[in-house]
Amino acid sequence: MTVLKISAFSDGDTGGNPAGVVLGEQLSTLQEMQTVAAEVGFSETAFAAPEGRGQSWRVRYFSPESEVPFCGHATIALGAALAEKFGSGKYMLRLNDAEISVEGELIEGKYAAALQSPPTWNEALNKAEINATLLLFGYNRSQLDDHIPPARIHAGADHYIIALRSRDDLRSMTYDLDAGRQFMRSRELVTIMFVWQESENIYHARNAFASGGVLEDPATGAAAAAFSGYLRTINRPQGGKIKIIQGEDMGSRSIITAEFGGKPGSSVRISGATRMIG
To answer: Which of 7, 19, 89, 215 makes a 20 to 30 Å CA pair with 80?
Structure first.
């Protein structure tokens, strides 16, 4: 089995979030895919196999410890891999619970990709759940940005979103991995996303990913899509396009672009550059 290693949402020749990509004639068994994902050790590995005619693929995603329903950065990496092997274009992807698409193209000698996310939705968190989340990370309510209330957000997978008032507070994010794993899995969360708003259309983010056995993700396309859908719900920002800078505090700066229309719940376009790492 050949595993391609591609960093998605890279910042030029550096940064991004490494993902494994396996292209096969058919998907391996559940145990085989989980074993390979654990051996690769990246936050996610995407397994894809063609189905039917045309450019349609069956896709499953695995973290080192569990299967996840949708992974944005691994989808971007998959789009680059498909473009490199079969040519630039749009590829239809059938996930466990959704059908999406990814477009891959060669730009100035490097591959970039853009995906259309599953539908989005969100719901407010109650006081007790907000307090429990803050306790896990050692934050208090005075550090929250009230313009973006805490919420459960979704775009193919569930996340919590917590907005902070200051960049320093975001930089200081820390938590216990085992406690975080129990917390996220008991709530069926993939990540907990913290953001700080730099300007109208630029956000800085950190994503705790204990549910998959990873302390932090340097770029999280699925959460970016869910967050964008949530911003649309609360009428932010103007113009329907944002940039998310993630991974800076891990030494792996990543750039995610999100574009979305005004229809509530509709798909979000997530795009970024890639670089081959193995």
So the answer is: 215
